[in-house]
Amino acid sequence: MKRSTGKDRSVTRTWRPATQAVRAGTWRSEQGETSEALFLTSGFSYDNAETAEARFRGEDPGMTYSRLQNPTVAMLEERIAVMDGAEACRVQATGMAAMTTALLCQLSAGDHVVAARAAFGSCRWLVDQLLPRFGIATTTIDARDNAAWEAAIRPNTKVFFFETPANPTMDIVDLAFVCGLAKSRGITTVVDNAFCTAALQRPIEYGADVVAYSATKLMDGQGRVLAGAVTGSEEFINSVLLPFQRNTGPNLSPFNAWVVLKGLETLDLRVKRQSENALAVGRFLEGRVPRISHPGLPSHPQHNLAMQQMDACGSIFSFEVEDREQAFAVLNALTLIDISNNIGDSRSLMCHNASTTHYSVSAEARAEMGVSEGMLRINVGLEDPQDVIDDLDQALAAAGL
Ligand SMILES: *Cc1c(COP(=O)(O)O)cnc(C)c1O
């Protein structure tokens, strides 16, 4: 196996993002294949016993076992690291495996975590339910409020954990401020960048230490596989995360890694077009629905900050109708857009978060983070935006809007 283009990472790092998404991290076997090879193998064999010994000693760079290394998985890891501007990356079986690994690998009993209260339901479960069971204290705050981050810090605060934009409220966190504050206090920031990917937002440029992904969403982008990724410094990934991952095994299968590699080839194209489409759909909905939370529209209270940090608004936003009954009526009248809780797909998808993605979050926590009974979240896909608008137009009318 050898690198196909850009002899080493110092070259791929100078490429522009769209080029990196197609080519970074590509290794070729002696066959010279153009598309990345799929190494669907759990183990590797050795020419002799001495080579096996040398590989386990780390003196021979070859591979030993796919929980430890796999060529297809390694290609994906290198591509994501380069795109993020990170020194290193490891991929996991799902976005939640990535979040759990990124947090548990560095936390111990007695530590304290400050987290954004507006977050994906399972991320809230980690913070509210899992970490406290292991003696890790957690505080959830309104992450839009810079002063709230500072006020929540305790002497034992080890990690700041948040997503921006947040799922599904579209709250924006000030990356430069929060990452800068963390750095000045020796706290590690873990940013869930699933809604943007490196194609729209690179938190490491703002001083983030660790970036975690659900690659299920925009990276695959076609609703096929579950996948996750964590990027950061060589020191964090190799010395802190890797021992945890190798010994607990939340690994991504080579097949799913290969599918995500194929997804990344079109990432730049898709997120830009989907952002344009989402802006058109948002403009249509504004004024037609009681409330809309869309980072690309000036009506979003943090529109300027969002547009500073993000290259485009992304494919996802939320809006509100009166109540759960009206939200269900809108969903049930859709003819093109699917009722689905997935996001980042090239298909337009819509869901009622309070009864699906945030079902496991208590009603009080939902109210506090702003997930109302009338909230609907939409992922705008690659269809002609006018067809999406026409579908919403008739569905809203059917629901009395
Ligand atoms: C979907 C999602 C996750 C979880 O990812 P999976 O791949 O479904 O495990 C985590 N964070 C955010 C913001 C998400 O949207």
Automatic annotation (TrEMBL):
EC number(s) per entry: 2.5.1.-
UniProt GO cellular component terms: cytoplasm
Main EC class the enzyme belongs to: transferase
CC cofactor: pyridoxal 5'-phosphate
Pathway(s) annotated for this protein in UniProt: Amino-acid biosynthesis; L-methionine biosynthesis via de novo pathway; L-homocysteine from O-succinyl-L-homoserine: step 1/1
Function: Catalyzes the formation of L-homocysteine from O-succinyl-L-homoserine (OSHS) and hydrogen sulfide.
Name of the protein this chain belongs to: O-succinylhomoserine sulfhydrylase
Naturally occurring in which organism (per UniProt): Novosphingobium kunmingense
